[in-house]
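Please, structure for the following, as tokens.
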Amino acid sequence: MFGFLKKLFGKKKTLKEKISKSLFDGELQKAFKNKIDQDFLNDLEESLLKADIGVRYTEKLVNSLASGDFEGDITYDQIKNHIRAQIKEELSGSEAKLSLDKKPYVILASGVNGSGKTTTLGKLANKLAGEGKKVVVAAADTFRAAAVGQLDVWAKRAGVKLITAEKEGGDPAALAYQALEFAQKEGYDVVLIDTAGRLQNNKNFMDQLGKIVRVLKKLDESAPHLSLLVLDGTTGQNALRQLEGFKEQSMVNGIIMTKLDGTAKGGAIIPIVKEFEVPVYFVGMGEGIDDLYEFNLDEYIKKLI
């Protein structure tokens, strides 16, 4: 119990400190012999694929290195800097900041079970409340009492308003409508809507998500102003299939990638941004209430490579 509280309320680390694993491990460095030969390129390709950068972009990065204009002996740092520059070019435009240019600003959060969606929403509520925003959270995962209870704990920690259904299994769309209506009347700045965890190929649940979007538009045609998909950084390439499914129903226009502190597979951000043109807003890096960080491209690349 006390160990958990220490993690929860301990001194917050920077994003750079929280990313503990790097794609370029000691084995790859040992394989480098001051020249780019085929053996090294093979090892590099394997490392990039393990990091879930994907076949297309792995091939592109390896080819850029193989055809690079290097003279004489080169250093391992030169190799890293070259690949960092290539990835930065690939991820141009991947960073995004919350604008909150509407009031109330409606953020819809979706994701598969186990992605850390509800926890992440609690952290986001805490972050916005800490910036002086009046926040209301809608517990629209009405079918799971445990999810509502979990969100209740996070809402109390963040000191924000929570709206729940009168009974388990209530209509999630009606609850989302109620939360937005309340926020409009009471002058709240932000509405955060938690939805049920669902697989991207579950038609009934995905249709339910679409209904939430349609109902919100009855009160505000521009809502939801941000539809965030929470992705588990440890799932790698599967995250792309999730995004494809969710984007059809909830018009996903932003990403939160969680659990990046416990994996070297964070390279999936690259194909996600490139193939779907969806920016990354935040990354989750731990269990604490403050462990949600704005995505910083330079820090991400330095720790990835």
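The two ends are 36 Å apart (CA to CA). The mean pLDDT is 83.
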